[in-house]
Each structure stands twice: as C-alpha cells, then as structure tokens.
Amino acid sequence: MKKLLLVSAVAVLLGAIPFLSADEWKSGIEWVEPPVVDPGPETAPANVPSDAIVLFDGKSMDAWENGENWPIKDGAVYSGKGVVRTKQHFGSVQLHVEFATPSEVKGEGQGRGNSGVFWGPYEVQVLDSYINTTYYDGQCGSIYKENPPAVNCCRKPGEWQTYDIIFMRPEFNEKGELVRPMYVTVFQNGILVQNHLQVKGETYYHLKHFYTAHPAKMPISLQDHGNPVRFRNIWVREISDSPVQPVKPDSPVKPFDVFGPQD
Q: Is residue 109 helix, strand or coil?
C-alpha cells in the first residue's frame, strides 16, 4: 500500500507539470467541434457561500503551497513560478474559480492563455479558446485529453470567466483497486459543459490515462504553464460522496400523481 501511495504521489506531482518535451499522447478519437455559445457579459465576483472555505480572497495566497511565487495585483493572483497546491486536502468538492486569460494575445493553440484547475491528478483545462483552434479535448472547459466541452462558451481574452466544478472523488479498495471512478461536472460561465462525466484516469499530456491508488483527500492545484493567467475569488465546499441521500425509514415515499390531487 505504501508503494502505491508513493507511486500516486509521484503521479500527482508529474500530472500538474506541463510535459513540453515529452511525446504527446493522443486518443485518436475524431471529436466534433463544440459549437460556440455566447455566455453574456462578465460579472463582478460571485458571492461566497457561508459554509465555503476561501482559498483566495484577493489579498493572500496563504492557503497555497508555493503561493509566495504567484504575484497578487488589484485583487487577482497571476500564474507565477511553479504549480500552487492547497495546503489543505479535500475529498469530493464543489469548487468555484474565476479566471481571465491575458488580454494581450500571444501564441496560438495550447500556447495561448494555458493553465489548469486540478483536484489531485485530474485536470479541467484553462485555455484561451476564444477564436483559437486546438484539439477539442484540450480546449477550455475540457477534461484534459478525456472529453471536449459540450460547447465553447469562452469570453474574450482578458475578460473574467467562471468555473463551478463538482469533483466526485474516485474510491480504491485496500488492494489499491478502483471500485468507483472519478466523476466531474463543470459549469463555465454558468453554462453546463461537462455533465457528470466518468473520468478514465489521471489526466496526462503524454500518456494514455490510467488510475493509480491515492488518498481519499487530495490538494487542489492551479497550473503554471508559462502564461500570465489571472485568478480571483476561489472557494471550495466539501460535499458528500453520495449525490443522493437515502430515504429515512420514518419518511415513507408516497406515489407521485402526475395529475395532482383529485377532489
């Protein structure tokens, strides 16, 4: 078990680092281009729920390892030197992140406004996908190298965007075998782009995805990919691993009458 956890820890570390020099793995699937949807104008920072844990409030990166190497300016933190990971580890979560790719467009494809939001070794891609062609399972809103977003609802470069992500953690038995896969739901700018997707494994650039056993609680990470992507208003809520609560014995289920009560 210790060996499995060691392998997993290494996998998490490597999974959050861009493998620019490694051979790229491709699924070979010919995806259909996600249609473009206008998400509407950018908004002020969203409200924070009363039971949320604030990870970045515009003033401090104290909740993050390596946070001192990401500069803060005007209430936003800029992708800096190296990956940042939360000091606290979390199980299944609801995560809110607001981000903006650089207003000055440089590069193309994966070299334009690239970053990523991770729970452990599983990534939701951040990219400037506003009139910017790349492989569809690597554009903004994708589960990286797993599944394209349902639509491309990116705002213009420099404008603020939102991610509301549900990470439902995988589960492993004592032998390190997968007994429940990872599921991810993503809303980008209020639009559903990933609907309770069953993830095939840890999301790597250079490898076909696979699972390795890891702890039930993992850090949340933001990727440094060499682009000055801004982030603000980051908070998280731990949620139940079971999306549906069982009915209590003293609360019998009554049949539902589609026609309503009858006189």
A: helix
Contacts of 135 (CB under 8 A, 6+ apart): 26, 31
The string of DSSP codes covering 42-66 is --SPPPPPTTPEEEE-SS--TTEET
Answer whether 234's CB lies under 8 Å from 219's CB.
Answer: no
Element (H, E) at 5: helix 2-15
Mode of pairing for the β-strands spanning 230-238 and 53-56: antiparallel
In the chain, what's the furthest Cα-to-Cα distance? 73
Residues 9-18 have pLDDT tens digits of 444 444 444 4
Pairing between β-strand 64-65 and β-strand 76-78 as defined by DSSP bridges: unpaired
Backbone angles phi, psi at 100, to 5 degrees: -145, 125
Domain extents in the chain: 2-20+50-238
218 DSSP assignment: B
The pLDDT tens digits for 66-118 are: 999 999 999 999 999 999 999 999 999 999 999 999 999 888 899 899 999 99
2-20+50-238 CATH fold: Jelly Rolls (2.60.120)
Asked if residue 189 lies in contact with residue 100, where contact means CB atoms within 8 angstroms, the answer is no
Radius of gyration of the chain (CA): 19
User: What is the CB neighbour count within 10 angstroms for residue 73?
Assistant: 9
Is the per-residue pLDDT at 254 higher than 70?
Answer: no
**Residues 6 or more apart in contact with residue 106 via CB below 8 angstroms:** 112
Between CA 113 and CA 85 the distance in angstroms is: 20
Q: What is the rounded distance in angstroms from the CA atom of residue 174 to the CA atom of residue 179? A: 10
